[in-house]
């Protein structure tokens, strides 16, 4: 591009203009979308990449001889390249497995790598702030082969309690942690914890579902072993997720789902699995979704991940400050109160108002926030809550969104007295 | 904001802030029934004491959103002290209120509309119909009560 200035100037209003859904009017008000932690809104570039694929290139991937089949394969494999470079996978595209979502990627980790490498008495160390996607597959593996699932506690300041981490590491073969809590916004010290795990001879997996669109990612620099996320939380489409691990680990993992696409040979006596990522991609893969994911990666790279971090930190700081000062203590933020190692996910507990009612009142202002347990029930129990109302930012968010949120919260607080 | 005020009528907010018949009954003799709505994490426990075909006492515990809590409070006030047969009638009326005025085929006779005046304070919950995801909140206590009465039958 000729003008360096143009590429480097990040403007959230441009992102907003690029995002068709943000033009919706809800209950006679412009939509105020504060649910990006749940699912983010795709820019036109993503929607068009998928449209272009279905209009011009749709065919099944691999093995095709005709022109569009080759093009479809190129689209699909091109997305793998883009993702590999986005997270700086040391072995490139050969280390990227496409799944249905982050949840399926965790099931791949537990049911393929875990079932082969973990035995009774081995420990998987997770934390109290994990999403169910990084808890339930481990419980399922426990039923199968008697592993232990151990939890790092969470402190009253909403951060991991690492006081006894050395003793917690006993018999641990895998540490599996979220890089950013989808309830608290807490950002965990992944690089340090991965180094600690390696010192104890354990591998390290990252649930990057929340951080992937909100911080730069470099798996080589982090020196982790598994890295998992979903496209729909990074401005991409639903239906596709990513599982990354180092090539040597991937090659040694047994296949997960069986069927077409994941074999190199099938006889009446048995089968030989394929090699590389294909071994884990049984059946026709999400090709159109891969086109969308590839476009989302390019779009995020165009915005600049460090620009996004800066922008969202300002928004978060502003929102936390106003929430703390405007409601006489009736609105409590369930999460760190400052922006140090904290992302733009803000869970609210309002005295005397159930989160479901909060969300209902906010909906009348066109404000989209999520009430509920956010698939993190152990964390909810830890803090004695049934649910929170959660607001979360994306690159298209503006201070104006916080203005409407605060206005609507005042209404809710007054209404319920 | 008109539909919002329709949902959160003053009667509903009043029952939410000062719920009637809160508490527990010794069980036995009372029957204890639990209800759960995973969507908003609402939990309700209904205690029923039926003697000689009459619901002589009802108490409720649990927690949840304003709609589920006020609906259970309104329910308890409406059914307490009534014969079970009459309670079943009130439940049926309330369920019909929650289904709204459903479109019927033209050659079918429309279902008899609910007599809102006969429903007393319960009529305040009719605004819920416009918020489909909240109907489950409003009916939680009623389904739990029905379950209890069925167990006693
Ligand atoms: C931290 C975290 N992990 C995992 C997931 C699961 O993602 P998905 O539902 O796309 O599989 C989510 C999404 O809710 C999440 O926030």
The amount of beta strand of chain A, in percent, is 15-25%
CATH domain class of the largest domain in chain A: Alpha Beta
Ligands and ions found = pyridoxal-5'-phosphate
- If you compute it from the alpha carbons, what radius of gyration of chain B comes out, rounded to the nearest whole angstrom? 15 Å
Q: State the strand order across the main sheet of chain A.
A: 4-10-9-8-7-5-6
What structural class should be given to the helix and strand makeup of chain A? Answer: alpha/beta
Query: Helical proportion of chain A?
Result: 40-55%
Please name the two chains that share the biggest interface, counting residues whose Cβ lies under 8 Å from a Cβ on the partner chain.
A-B, 16 and 21 residues
Tally the beta strands of chain A.
Answer: 17
Number of helices of chain B: 6
Mean pLDDT across all amino acids of chain A:
95
> What can be said about the biggest beta sheet of chain A?
7 strands, mixed
Q: How many strand units of chain B?
A: 3
Structural class determined from secondary elements of chain B: alpha+beta
- The low-confidence runs of chain B, each spanning 5 or more residues with pLDDT under 50, are 102-108
* Gap from first CA to last CA of chain B: 45 Å
Helix percentage of chain B: 40-55%
What CATH architecture label of chain B applies?
Answer: Alpha-Beta Complex
